[in-house]
Amino acid sequence: MKTASRLGLFLLLAPIILWLACLVILPHVDMLVISLRIRVAPRVYEPSFANYIEFFTEPLYWNTFMRTAVMSVTATLLTLIVAFPVSYYIAKVLRGRIKNFLFMLCLIPFWVSELVRTFGWMILLRETGVVSNTLQWLGLVDGPIEMLYNDAAIMVGLVYTSMLFMVVPLVTVLDSLDDSLIEAGYDLGGNSFTVMREIVVPHAMPGIASGCIVVFMLTLGNYLTPTLLGGKDSLWFTEQIYNQFITRFNWELGSAFGFLLLVLSSIIVWLGLRMSGQTLSQAIR
Q: Which end of the chain is more exposed for a tag (fewer CB within 10 A), N or C?
């Protein structure tokens, strides 16, 4: 009986173990190995830390790396600030069909690809776009305004493309909050701010942590949105990785960049969990 149970457990876990091993662990191990060598001749390599040394000694690479980290953290915080009131309103204020309808409205934009959604923002923000033409029609500006190819446009696109991944875990965890706890907070003399700080936010912390982890990972590794909305001068680190792999065919340096991005994301996620008092298992749940 025990043998049958173990066999059943193995068969259940085999797909995910195979998926993790073949598509996550092995590629990253290979990427690390490639990053620790240099090409001295065609098909001839020797072990070296030159790729990592080049990263730390080249200001463009280092500055782009730090800029991407800072903007990814900022985009994650802005997404949380925007998504939390929306999630609270859906989970605790609305009831019945209107609740389901509003939640569905949050899902509808994600029925199309990220490319289409990003092009939508380009149509709105370009010099001859909807926003510029509307401002001119209202007489607020004298001529066309180019709102693309700057950090603000990148931030708008990143927050928009990541919103769903913050709303869903927040709505899920806020739905489990008993309304009587909120009512008790008000009955004991608390105001909206204290109830939110002492009851709602601590209860929602696992959802906040999991949402922030997902949004940060997606933002840090995003290539399409920064490139399209920020232009060639977006200075996003994934663009540097793309250039090394595809444009320059320098897989060794590109692998080093990719592994450094993995280390950066792991460190920031760990720091975020420590600061929020959560563990990874709590955030996943």
A: N
Note whether 162 and 219 are within 8 A (CB): yes
- DSSP run (H or E) holding 111: none
Q: Residue 35: in which H helix or E strand, if any?
A: helix 26-35
Residue 92 pairs in a beta bridge with none
66-113: pLDDT as tens digits: 999 999 999 999 999 999 999 999 888 878 788 888 888 888 888 888
Domain boundaries, the chain: 52-284
Alpha carbons 187 and 184: distance in angstroms, whole number = 5
Question: pTM here?
Answer: 0.87
Grouping H, G, I as helix, E, B as strand and the rest as coil, residue 37 is strand
Q: What is the pLDDT of residues 168-219, one digit of tens each?
A: 999 989 988 888 888 888 888 878 888 888 888 888 898 898 899 999 999 9
52-284: CATH architecture? Orthogonal Bundle (1.10)
